[in-house]
Amino acid sequence: MKLDSNRPDFALQARRHNLENMQLKASTWVELLQLPNLYSFDEALLLCAVSEDEWLVWIPDHGEALLHRRQFR
Hints:
- With 73 residues, the chain is of the alpha+beta class.
- The protein has a domain at 25-71.
- It is built from one helix and four strands, in the order H-E-E-E-E.
- The chain has a four-stranded antiparallel beta sheet, with no helix packed on it.
């Protein structure tokens, strides 16, 4: 497969593909797409996978939360 780097959306497509196929693991910081409250941080620490699409996370100034993969990147 040949990649066409002249296309303006080349970098965006590559990044989106990498995020979808990224293997998540515990002790990784992820960026939250929506804050659980006004005072919480915008990042969360992955604690453990609850299911294929859900993770137990710790959010500074908020505490533990259960998040779906769509809620962070």
